[in-house]
Amino acid sequence: MDTQEESSSWEPLRPQLAPKYLEQTLKLFSRYYNFVTIDEAVAILEGRLPSKPNCCVVTFDDGYRNNAAHALPILQKYGVPAVFYVATGHTEEQRPFWVDRLDYALQFANIDGETIRYKETEITIDKSNRGTLARSYSRLRGILKHADMPDIEMRDYFDQLAESLEKQSGMSIKQIVKDDPWSAILTWDEIGDISRSTEITIGSHTVDHVRLGQTGAEASRDQVVRSKEAIEKVIGKSCRHFCYPNGSWNQQAVDILRETGYASAVTTDEGINDPGADPFKLKRISISGKKDPLFLLASTAGLSR
Description:
Residues 54-305 form the NodB homology domain. The chain is of the alpha/beta class. The chain has helices spanning 19-29, 38-45, 65-77, 88-93, 98-108, 130-145, 151-169, 188-197, 217-235, 251-259, 293-300, and strands at 34-35, 55-56, 58-62, 82-86, 115-118, 121-124, 200-204, 241-243, 264-270, 282-284.
């Protein structure tokens, strides 16, 4: 989320959601929607609870600390339950996500005009202004995010790229991540406190934020089981809900989640979910902050294109 009121040595190229926009959206939606927990939503979809008109679930991916610092007070103000999906390895190690590491590295490395090659694709980094750099970063991020290769190979490639950029500049987001308002990850203590004192459900986002659609069965099972166990140890109750990192999933991933005790999983596929929808293929509508909240309201009502 946007942390404009906090001082920082950098500002991400990746768009951030402003707390003011989130509040405007929740205030508007509270007039038309019934905010429910993810447990209630799944029970309604499966027919175990009677349907309510216009049910809505709010979700946050990754487990950034600014979700708690900025979004949580707004959620509580409007009485909105939500789900925080956390990647437990990043929580445990206070390890930055690769999208933030890449963002930071590109901003500080002296590589204007240089070319980064990924397979047959070449990306020329244009640092002539912030807008052109943001476009270079967005293109590179998109290519890596959707790379058609085993996830472990993509992460190895990224680590080599990031280390090369960091060596060139002598700077790494790893040096600041624990206190950085943009990239800091929630700690286990903070997650435990949130789980005990708020209407926030803690869900799994794997251990290492791996793309399950590009990961073998054994590794996928390890990722979803270990993350589930780690969360349950901290919150003292069952972790039943999952979010596919980068929206990457396949039937293998769905089967593993069912077998290992999860009750739902959310994708990044755009859309709404009607009763009878598969709880392991749930669609969502992104709150990007780029459009007026009224347009977002129309989107969720199926009134926009």
